[in-house]
Amino acid sequence: MKNKFENYYNSIQKLCKLANIDYSKFLENILIDLKNQMKELFSPNEIWFKEGKSFDRYWIFLEALTNHQWEYSDVEYWFKFLRSPSDTREEITASLRYNILLRDKSTCQKCGRSAPKVELEIDHILPWVCGGPTVISNLHVLCFDCNRGKSSLCFEGD
Question: Domains plus CATH for the chain?
Fold first, then answer.
């Protein structure tokens, strides 16, 4: 197994050199991509957030998601890991914004007010600073007032 990884290491290093790519930066980008993929995989869903956001609920969510019994330390690792910001903040594109406004019927998902009576914004359900991805399932419509009134705390009790 060790030789296999050494071969991968040497091959990647040679390819980076041939392509004039900084090897360290290449590995750093792979790590960032892997972290973001893991965050998306293990990020709690919207139902979990509506039910209470506690560590215990996350543990139940994680075990249901993976069909695996997790050790406390492993659940704690993912719970803390998901609270850290994503390494890259993706822009909410015009088409993504349009699709979310269409899905939410241009209505604030908190107070029910709608355009044009109020200014609407697209908001992350799990805040970006807590590792929330910029994907349609993690975005919703809030009016200006509701979005300013909500906290960007990642989990209840913070």
Answer: 2-81 (no CATH), 94-149 (1.10.30.50)
